[in-house]
Write a structure and sequence with these properties.
The protein has helices at about 5-15, 20-40, 50-65. It has three helices and no strands. The chain has one domain (about 5-65). Helix 1 (about 5-15) packs antiparallel against helix 2 (about 20-40) and helix 2 (about 20-40) packs across helix 3.
């Protein structure tokens, strides 16, 4: 996949995530992580905003796992 396509895919994911509900964010988190992994594998620069978004999505996913644990 070309670098232009990866950047385009990343931008599309970012647009889908703007104002998205938690369920949508959790559903799209693996896709964001995969795009970043492919960008790194291709030696591309991963924009800071995309890395921050991935970190926030991973945090959401982790918190969602703990929400269902009995106390």
């Amino acid at each position: 996949m070309s670098s232009i396509n990866l950047y385009s895919e990343a931008e599309q994911l970012q647009e889908k995530l703007k104002g998205a509900c938690l369920n949508t964010r959790l559903a799209l988190q693996p896709s964001v992580t995969k795009v970043i992994e492919r960008m790194r594998k291709e030696g591309m620069h991963v924009p800071l905003g995309l890395r921050q978004l991935d970190a926030a999505l991973c945090e959401d996913a982790m918190e969602a796992r703990f929400d269902n644990l009995p106390v």
